[in-house]
C-alpha cells in the first residue's frame, strides 16, 4: 500500500511564509524555508550526520562483492528532488500536517471524492510532473548500465527512476504518470488527461491558477463541485491514477515477480525507505530467508535495521555517487 496525498499539500510548503506557517506544525519548516529556496532539498530531507568515510568503504565493499544486486527504493530517495516523504521526523508529511492519504475504497465508491481528488491533482500536476531525478537516481541508472544491478524495485510513484533511464525496474505501487480506467482497465498517460481537464474546465482552470500563483491550493467547495472530471474515452468508466492507494493491495503477479527477482539476487540494498509498509517489507523477509546480505541507506531508523549487516544514515544523493559500481 502506498500513501498518495493529493498534490496540494506538498505544494503548500512553498515560498509564502504566512501560508506555510499556517499549514505546518512547529517551527522547523519555517526555519528550513528561509535557509533554502523552494523545491530545494532542504525542505524535505531530514538532517543527517556527515558522511562517515569508514561506512562508505563498507558500502563500497558490499557493492563490489555483489554480482546480482537488488535495490529497493522508497520516498527517501526522492526527497532530494523536492518530493516530501511521509514518515521522516519533522520534515515528513505526517509530522508536518494533519492530512492523511486517500483511501482506495472511498475513491472507488464516491464520485464526489473522485471529483475532489482530481481537482487538486489537476492543479498540482504541472509541478509534480516537473520534478527531476537527483544524483541517487542517476547513480542507480548508471549501475544498471554497467551491469551491476540485477533489479530495481521502487515504492515511489513519481517516475523519477524512469526519468533517469532505469529499465530493470518494478514500480511496486504504480506511477502517477499513468491513469487507469476502473471499468475496462485501459491505461493512458497522465499528461494526456491534463489536456482533457483543461478542455472541460477552461474557466475553472484560470480561476484556480489565479488563486494559486505559487501552487498553494485552497479549493472552495464551489470550485470542487464545478470541476468537470472526464471519464474513460473508451468505455466511459471512472478514471484513477495507476497507483496503489492506501487500503488497496499490490497485484499478486507483480509481487510474485519481485519475489523471484529477490531469490535470484545475491544481495539487497535498501535506499531511502523506513520499510514500515508491508508491501516493501515482505521482500526483506524473503531476502532474510535466502540469507542475503542486506545493507540499508536511510536517514533514521527502519523496520529492518536489526537484519542489516550495514546501516548508513546519509543522504542518498550524497552517498551513492561516491560508490564505484565496477
Ligand atoms: Zn474504460
From TrEMBL:
Main EC class the enzyme belongs to: transferase
Q: Which GO MF terms does the UniProt record name?
A: histone deacetylase activity, NAD-dependent; lipoamidase activity; NAD+ binding; NAD+ poly-ADP-ribosyltransferase activity; NAD-dependent protein biotinidase activity; NAD-dependent protein lipoamidase activity; zinc ion binding
The record's listing under Pfam families reads: SIR2 (PF02146)
* Binding-site positions, NAD(+): 74-94, 155-158, 272-274, 298-300, 316
Q: Which residues form the active site?
A: 173 (proton acceptor)
Q: Where in the cell is it found?
A: Mitochondrion matrix
Report the SUPFAM superfamilies cross-referenced here: DHS-like NAD/FAD-binding domain
Residue positions binding Zn(2+): 181, 184, 232, 235
One Gene Ontology CC term in the entry = mitochondrial matrix
Q: How is the cofactor bound?
A: Binds 1 zinc ion per subunit.
Cited InterPro entries: DHS-like_NAD/FAD-binding_dom, NAD-dep_sirtuin_deacylases, Sirtuin, Sirtuin_cat_small_dom_sf, Sirtuin_class_II, Ssirtuin_cat_dom
Could you share any additional remarks the record makes about this protein?
According to some authors, ADP-ribosyltransferase activity of sirtuins may be an inefficient side reaction of the deacetylase activity and may not be physiologically relevant.
Report quaternary structure and partners. Answer: Interacts with GLUD1, IDE and SLC25A5. Interacts with DLAT and PDHX.
Protein family per UniProt: Belongs to the sirtuin family. Class II subfamily.
State what this protein does.
Acts as NAD-dependent protein lipoamidase, biotinylase, deacetylase and ADP-ribosyl transferase. Catalyzes more efficiently removal of lipoyl- and biotinyl- than acetyl-lysine modifications. Inhibits the pyruvate dehydrogenase complex (PDH) activity via the enzymatic hydrolysis of the lipoamide cofactor from the E2 component, DLAT, in a phosphorylation-independent manner. Catalyzes the transfer of ADP-ribosyl groups onto target proteins, including mitochondrial GLUD1, inhibiting GLUD1 enzyme activity.
Q: What is this protein called?
A: NAD-dependent protein lipoamidase sirtuin-4, mitochondrial
Q: Report the source organism.
A: Rhinolophus ferrumequinum
